[in-house]
């Protein structure tokens, strides 16, 4: 594929699909956390991680 010959929008769509596909296939998740709750959220996550070790 000649990347220089495709339109910007088409290229951006290809990148978006590739990135989203990788996220779906690897089991990764995302979560929206209120900025005011971020420190507490991270502390809980770290404690859970430490307990698994």
Can you describe this structure?
By secondary structure, the protein is mainly alpha-helical. It has one domain (7-52). The protein has two helices and no strands. The longest helix has 18 residues, at 8-25. The model has no long low-confidence stretch (mean pLDDT 84).
Write the layout of secondary structure elements.
Layout: H1 8-25, H2 38-52
How helix-rich are the residues, as a percent range?
Answer: 55-70%
Oligomer: single chain
Q: Which structural class is indicated by helix and strand composition?
A: mainly alpha
Instruction: Determine the mean pLDDT.
Output: 84
How far the N terminus sits from the C terminus, by CA atoms, comes to 46 Å
- Unreliable stretches (pLDDT < 50, length at least 5) are none
What profile does the largest beta sheet have? none
Shape: elongated
Radius of gyration, taken over Cα atoms and rounded to an integer in Å: 18 Å
Strand tally: 0
Domain count: 1
Order of helical and strand elements: HH
Strand content: under 5%
Number of helices: 2
Search tags:
single chain; 53 residues; mainly alpha; 2 helices; 62% helix
Produce a short descriptive summary.
The protein is mostly helical.
